[in-house]
């Protein structure tokens, strides 16, 4: 993981704290704090806070315009995450695929859906200069 001199923070809704903790811990995220209305995770070096708000859950998840995730710069770490998701039988929104095949921005990607229908994208660019 990268140095934590700056940590990105993302807050998302959840419908059930126990389901949320179970999902994110299976993904390898560390539970940092738990309160009656939210849980905070170390999400691959950044902070994700899932606020209990069952009225704000998307009934049908859509990739665009709202999703978040991780862009790996190490292919082995990407593959480890993919295997973990498969081994833990986490729900895929979209199986692994190649985007922009043959172009400089070609990358591997897959999407998971958490218990509150938040979409998580995981990707790896073959050319690291295309990450940003």
Automatic annotation (TrEMBL):
Pfam families: Glyoxalase. Gene3D superfamilies: 2,3-Dihydroxybiphenyl 1,2-Dioxygenase, domain 1 (3.10.180.10). It comes from the Bacteria. Residues 7-122 form the Glyoxalase/fosfomycin resistance/dioxygenase domain. This is Glyoxalase. It comes from Salipaludibacillus neizhouensis. The lineage of its organism: Bacteria, Bacillati, Bacillota, Bacilli, Bacillales.
